[in-house]
Design brief:
Layout lengths: L5 H12 L5 H22 L25 H13 L5 H21 L26 H9 L7 H14 L3 H6 L5 E2 L2 E5 L5 E5 L2 H11 L24 H15 L7 H14 L4 H8 L4 H4 L7 H9 L6
Antiparallel strand pairs: 1-2, 2-3
GO cellular component, one term: cytoplasm
Protein name: Recombinase XerC
Organism: Caryophanon latum
Amino acid sequence: MNAYPKFMNDFFIYLTTIKGKSNRTRKEYEYDIALFLRFHTATAEHMKLEHIHDIDIRNFNVQTLSDVTLEDLYLFLAYCEETRGNSAASRARKVATLRSFFHYLYTKRKLITNNPTDDLEAPKLPKRRPVYLKIDEAKTLLHATKGNTHEQRNFCMLTWLLHLGLRVTELCDLNVSSLQGDRLRIIGKGNKERIVFCSDVCLQALAAYNDVKVPYKGDGEEPLFTSQKGTRLTRQGVSKMLRATTEQAGFAKGITPHKLRHTSATLMYQAGADIRSLQHILGHASVATTQIYTHVEDDAIRDVLAKNPLNE
């Protein structure tokens, strides 16, 4: 905490306690804001940027941010793109961070006399179709857990990720008490709660895992999934398991937990799930986010065109 000025630490407290942001999101905001303040210091004092992370911002004067212009912000984004090699998505995240930060300073705390981010535009992001596994690939991945260490646990986790569209952090945060019958209580982004229903396949996989589950050795609520040491599983632990299973399945490219979420959502949509139900299951704040799964397969497009009556 001492590495940053008080107004920054106050903002981080506001993010977590009032806005309900996760610690992971807070860390991202922390990195982006600290980088901007160091960049602003370096440019104002004509310092070289090669050692920007060595710049001490503990005594940064918040009032100087009242003089920040829109051009200053775009100069920072240009530095991020040209010198740091940040992608459009990364720069868009920095824009969102700066907007939130300056809004807090101007509106909530009234520490600055104007908000330079009012007209700040984010980089345009290319629209990409989600990358996902086909049904036979998903089955191959599940089968690859057979015979491995922690077979029942890994099979169960992959089954839940593929059937329920969980984020990996949501999976790791599940407790035994999260499941009541077939009702699963999930705490998603922004501490928002949603309820989904586990299929018989998910419940059967969990029952098989519970027979061999390593007992929990920590404090607090018992997690649904534990590591071999009896601790709560982490995102890194799930990713490591998935990499090993991917290799066992013989896939040429790696598979991330988020790719499994894309797979789950796409397969549910192709099976007839309506967009609003899918939005709830995935925990999306906006239906616009869910609509990326409404893409149509090339084979389906080809089939429609082939059936044009003018072809006869």
